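so my prof wants the structure for this chain in the tokens format not the other one, which i didnt know existed until like an hour ago. anyway here's the sequence
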Amino acid sequence: MLPSVNPNQLTIRPFSHTQKVLGGLAFALGVVFLLGEYERVGDLRIYLAAAGDFLDGKPIYGGLYGEPALFPYMGSPTLALLLSPLSFLSLPWPALIWKLLNILLLMRIWQLILAYFPADRLEGTLGATFSGASFLAMAFLIYLNFHVVQFSILLLFSILEGLYRIQARQQVLSGALVLSLGIICKVIPLVALPYLAYRGYFKAALLSAGMVLAWMAFPAMVVGWEYTWAQNLAWLQTINPALEDNVFDVSTRSIHGIGALVATLTKADIGNPFTLDIRRHVVDLPASVVVGLITLTKAGLIGMSLYFLQWKSRFSDHRDQMRQLWELSYILAITPLVFPQQRSYGFILLFPAVAYLMYQLFFSGYSWQKGRKALFVLILILLNLELILGHFREYYWHFKTLTYASLMLLGLLAYTPPSQTAKSP
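here's what i got, hopefully its the right format
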């Protein structure tokens, strides 16, 4: 039996007064990325090359892709098969199709986020300004996903859409299908499964897991079981969190997250051929100690979820939608911090947390102390540093400023629970 839920929760509403903001955003994204950057294929080139090799029966793990060939393929064999039709199109058509899809998915993501907020607060100019400010706060992370043609928007969509269908619409089958598709693409939506189990949606969690296994076997219908099995094993080994590259997370200079931050702070000789010759470690510890610190820090962030989820409310889903957004925002915000091999574009998962805090600032911000407002502004500046002062981006990568911004965001989120939401004066 599904947990009891409030039937008034998470009702998808028309965009109303935010339509102009979102319509303008979609137009701007279309102009910049469908017209201004129409020739830029970005990281999609890696996936298309792997898709072509997959159809040819070649190993897609262990080698490097791109122009120049510098990056490994990290997606699943199933994702390679699903993208294979695009590999037959001449460039840049696959990238244009993917960018257009991402524009539509981004609009749907915002519609799903808005469903958590009281409808009457979103009317008029203030509601439209809130929408505009929320997107502006995420400007760099949104821009980067389109600029490098990545999959993180799809991953965020699959989590929010899957949870909406399961929790609000009781559409377990379609919700599990959306979640499993996201998981088989890039694993990250896997975080939704323990969340569903914690909230008592055991059937949905198990069904989603079963569908992931089915997706893993799906390529066998096209390329045979033996090759599919071998590539799945190679994929699982590639994303194994226990691998040294995935633990220390410094295989490239632009990786962010807890692994990269702790490693660079506690080990002197950590890095890669592109690491700047500027000291960033505060102590120099043995590798085994650093691994322990990384593990403990990640465990601490995961354990902090219980503060948001509240142990006494386990296996139930009866709270108001603002509390649901608050707890989900934390889970999504820690995901790029604890998962390995996360570049800047993966931090678009901060979008719900930024929107939640922006809502608090707009509609109960008069109760915020100046220090809290200043911290939020600092966080937003750090999130967008590469857009504001991109010339120094190598220094931001070197010192992991995006990771610091994310950790500060988590602190502010914990300090701003839904109970502090007050009515507008």
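also thought this was worth mentioning. The first helix runs from residue 19 to 36.
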